[in-house]
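Is this the right way to post structure tokens for a design question? Let me know if I should format differently. Anyway, here goes:
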């Protein structure tokens, strides 16, 4: 009885040592610089304001933490929550569904069984207006815009912001 337990114990211990030995180095990850995140948020607000829309824009990093927020001078208070929820939906769900925008995610899941549970995830606002920010194939963040009369219009402003910073994401 003692010998089989000892053998199992030694196998588990050696497995743990081999895992920790191979995990000694830290992973590297591209990060969205604060200056670029701020520029994206400001650009989204500026593009929407040119169309007469009073919006807010929220940029998150790849881990879903807020990196920058810009609220237009006349944007109502709810636009902060709306833009944050769209950005969070994009960065949280976009990579899982291989979709670059929240409108694409909505189109993909709206008629399926996943839509109900996904729209009730805390912090997720599953409507158009969120766009992933990528460096090559790596997701480095997302931007969400809220306040235009329709998420499709919010998403145009978010996409314009990502296009403006694209040359610095390489």
């Amino acid at each position: 009885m003692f010998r089989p337990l000892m053998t199992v114990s030694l196998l588990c211990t050696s497995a743990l040592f081999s895992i920790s030995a191979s995990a000694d180095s830290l992973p590297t990850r591209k990060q969205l610089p604060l200056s670029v995140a701020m520029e994206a948020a400001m650009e989204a607000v500026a593009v929407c304001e040119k169309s007469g829309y009073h919006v807010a824009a929220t940029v998150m990093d790849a881990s879903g933490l807020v990196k920058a927020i810009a609220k237009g001078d006349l944007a109502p208070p709810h636009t902060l929550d709306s833009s944050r929820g769209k950005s969070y939906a994009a960065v949280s769900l976009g990579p899982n569904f291989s979709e670059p925008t929240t409108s694409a995610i909505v189109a993909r899941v709206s008629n399926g069984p996943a839509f109900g549970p996904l729209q009730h995830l805390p912090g997720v606002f599953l409507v158009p207006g969120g766009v992933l920010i990528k460096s090559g194939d790596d997701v480095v963040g997302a931007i969400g815009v809220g306040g235009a009369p329709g998420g499709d219009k919010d998403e145009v402003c978010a996409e314009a912001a990502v296009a403006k910073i694209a040359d610095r994401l390489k």
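Format looks fine. Someone answered above. Worth noting: The first strand starts at residue 56 and ends at 61. The CA atoms of residues 49 and 161 lie 13 Å apart.
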